[in-house]
Design brief:
- The protein has 378 residues and is mainly alpha-helical.
- The chain folds into two domains: 22-26 and 33-219 and 329-354, Citrate Synthase, domain 1 (Orthogonal Bundle), CATH 1.10.580.10; 222-324, Cytochrome P450-Terp, domain 2 (Cytochrome p450-Terp, domain 2).
- The protein has 16 helices and three strands.
- The chain has helices spanning 38-44, 47-56, 62-74, 80-91, 96-104, 116-138, 152-161, 167-179, 187-197, 202-213, 222-232, 238-247, 265-281, 284-304, 314-324, 332-354; strands spanning 22-25, 30-33, 36-37.
- It has a three-stranded antiparallel beta sheet.
- A hairpin with a 2-residue loop joins strand 2 (30-33) and strand 3 (36-37).
- Helix 5 (96-104) runs antiparallel to helix 6, helix 8 (167-179) packs across helix 16 (332-354) and helix 10 (202-213) packs across helix 16.
- It is globular.
- 46% of the residues are buried.
- The model has no long low-confidence stretch (mean pLDDT 94).
- Bound molecules: acetyl coenzyme *A.
- Acetyl coenzyme *A is lined by residues 10, 217-219, 221, 251-258, 301, 305, 308, 310, 313-315.
Length: 378
């Protein structure tokens, strides 16, 4: 929706940054991260390798990787004040995404004199502990202490349940975290860049980005997307349920994208990862149902909004994969944040180098020559 003066309320198509981090081509359905086609990186890299790649512009050597893994593992435990806050939030039935937003503001507790890189590592390490600990507290269980011998992804799954996860599940989660690690100038990344560009600090930037990610038009869609699959229940009901939603003016969650006008390449990668994981360690019937729901939704959307090219986005198969990993729907978006934090921080580093305040303009369209009326006469 753009006006004749070139103003677009959603800034669609406006170029606002140059980046070495990721390239998104919405017409070709292409996503490059740190120079690698998504499918190449997502399925092969450990999450720690991806962190190193985005922050250093190249893959680590074995020694560099070992060092990073060890350092992140050592930074996982949360300060007492953060745990206390999470307990209060659980008593108050705060949603996991709100609890993450509250706790994220405490991420640099005890490390206020650290350099930027150390703060960034602390943020990445602790975000996963916050999400897992809060999930346990909400279930009325005590948090599970992080296990330093496990990788970032394996330890997150371990902290959720107290059980060491299978290799298939760890690979499934690593593929997911790599897939969502960065995606051009999306809303939450833009928010982080705007904040850090004021010469604020990394924790403020990440807290703001978490707030932006929370909304259902951005990172909040996978829970509702899975709810739709469950509501449909069996393949024969897909058309009826989805059509009823469209007739009621609802949006189908997990479909449509501002940039992609073809199938989101992340949906491709996550669908393959979900299939692999469900085959090794899960429920293939649910995977087959999701495939039918996807096909039906894309077909109905083409009829409902012709010419809009509403295709499957990342959230649809995120929902399926994370469900297959045993995650509850209310921690899907916080888990997205665990992956995306690395990208937010990498963008902050880029923005800090660039060093220019982000300050666009608005056009005033209000009245110009009002006369003051004293309160007694209004
Ligand atoms: N279901 C039904 N109709 C849709 C959908 C959908 N999923 N997506 C877009 N439309 C319709 C809109 O109603 C609009 O119709 P209109 O022009 O007749 O009013 C048209 O298609 C264009 O939609 P916009 O909202 O203008 O497109 P925009 O680029 O702003 O939206 C968005 C992109 C927000 C993702 C949208 O497609 C949507 O709401 N999808 C559902 C929510 C979702 O899956 N969000 C996750 C996105 S992925 C991510 O951020 C990680």
């Amino acid at each position: 929706m753009s006006t004749n003066n070139g103003y677009d309320p959603g800034l669609a198509g406006v170029l606002a940054a140059e980046t070495y981090l990721s390239h998104v081509d919405g017409l070709k359905g292409e996503l490059i991260i740190g120079g690698f086609p998504l499918a190449e990186l997502a399925a092969n890299a450990t999450f720690e390798e991806t962190v190193y790649l985005l922050w250093n512009g190249r893959l680590p050597t074995q020694n560099e990787l070992n060092e990073l893994k060890e350092e992140l593992a050592g930074l996982r435990p949360l300060p007492d004040a953060t745990i206390k806050l999470l307990r209060e939030a659980a008593n108050d039935h705060t949603t996991p995404m709100d609890a993450l937003r509250m706790a994220s503001a405490t991420l640099d507790l005890g490390s206020s004199d650290a350099n930027h890189l150390k703060t960034a590592k602390t943020i990445v390490a602790r975000i996963a502990t916050i999400v897992a600990s809060y999930h346990r507290l909400r279930q009325g269980e005590e948090p599970v202490a992080p296990e330093p011998t496990l990788s970032h992804a394996a330890n997150f799954l371990y902290m959720l349940t107290g059980a060491t996860p299978s290799d298939a599940r760890v690979r499934g989660l690593e593929t997911y975290l790599n897939t969502v690690v960065d995606h051009g100038l999306n809303a939450s990344t833009f928010a982080a860049r705007v904040i850090i560009a004021t010469q604020s600090d990394l924790v403020s930037a990440i807290t703001g980005a978490i707030g932006a990610l929370k909304g259902p038009l951005h990172g909040g869609a996978p829970g509702p997307a899975l709810d739709t699959v469950f509501e449909i229940g069996t393949a024969e009901r897909a058309e009826e349920v989805l059509q009823a939603k469209l007739d009621a003016g609802e949006r189908l969650m997990g479909f449509g994208h501002r940039v992609y006008k073809v199938r989101d390449p992340r949906a491709e990668v996550l669908s393959a990862a979900a299939e692999k994981m469900f085959k090794a360690d899960g429920d293939m019937a649910l995977y087959e149902l999701a495939k039918t729901v996807e096909e039906t939704a894309v077909r109905l959307l083409a009829i409902h909004k012709p010419g809009r090219n509403l295709q499957t986005n990342v959230e649809f198969y995120t929902a399926l994969l994370l469900h297959g990993l045993g995650l509850e729907t209310d921690i899907f978006t916080p888990t997205f944040a665990i992956g995306r934090t690395t990208g937010w921080l990498a963008h902050c580093f880029e923005q800090m180098k660039y060093g220019r305040l982000i300050r666009p303009q608005s056009r005033y369209i209000g009245e110009m020559d009002r006369e003051w009326v004293p309160v007694a006469k209004r």
